[in-house]
Amino acid sequence: MRNWILPENIADVLPREARQIETMRRTLMDVFARYGYELVMPPLIEYVESLFLLDDPALNLKTFKLVDELSGRQMGLRADITPQVARIDAHILNRQGVARLCYAGSVVHSRPDGILSSREPRQIGAEIYGCADIAADVEVIELVMESLQLAGLGNVSLDIGHIGLFHTLADAAGLKGDARDQVFDALQQKDLPTLREATDGLDNTVVAGLLALPTLYGGAGVLERARVALPAIDGVANALDSLESLANALKARGISFRFDLAEVKSSDYHTGLVFAAYTPGFANAIARGGRYDSVGEKFGRSRPATGFSLDLRALTHLPFPDVQPAILAPAGDDAALIVAIRALRAKGETVVVDLGVVAGESGCDRALQLEAGQWRVVPLA
Fold it and tell me: CB neighbours (10 Å) of residue 264?
């Protein structure tokens, strides 16, 4: 067996790509910090019960599981960091006020999201706990858009939906179990024939609302159409009011968006506003987020929450950042040489000591040479 072959959808990260991922991680973490987000670092592995917020079959299937030889309990490799951050907020930090938390780390999937998707994404995200006001959702979306701009992405389209619309209509129709899942899947695909078939025999008013959701797509005028097309149920009205408040706040900040009221592609723990950012050249959403209120209930403390995440590895087909050319220095124990190398590195220069450099592989465009008893930096021949 060739022992250098990696499993499917698992790949090494080579220097140029690794440099891009790390540069982007540092840039985004600095942005998060300027907004007041504090970094947390949950473990890669923990007891499997803590890795799911609710009965989340999709996340369960994605999670690698193994037995802890110390305790005999089942453990899992995290497939999503949000449940871990929710545990930290609810059970460890236990703050009374708002907590802004961010993270960056690998997650592992037992199966890929798509044909070209990695099973080891580098997930980075930011989350707000303890604030149910629309202002928290606005801040998260503002942070998403700034992050994508700093990542070099242009022409970003922001789609906004509300998963509460589906849940309200599904509850009104009495949909449960597989029947509910079938309608949910058809809605995600905007598959109207399947949606009609799956809702056949249900209350006509509710069915009309479910069939209307995939058609409610576009600018702010969508909300006016939605108030006419959807049944007058409290949950529907509350969701549309939230979307209208969000729209006004985003307009005030100059953030462009579209409503997609069938935009329900989310994790099972999302409860309200959901959003996804798309850009040309990417088959899937480049960032996703939304509201997941009561997320910490499983850990003994229910708190409203909202946040977003993206995969740093998905951004690596963007142009790679330029590398500052290095200085090639000779090996040796000369005291003045050692001082010169240290001084250059202290100034931010990259100094590569020649331990057998091959031409064209060092990344050096200058050399440290001894001239008239002084070590000087000169152009590399």
Answer: 21
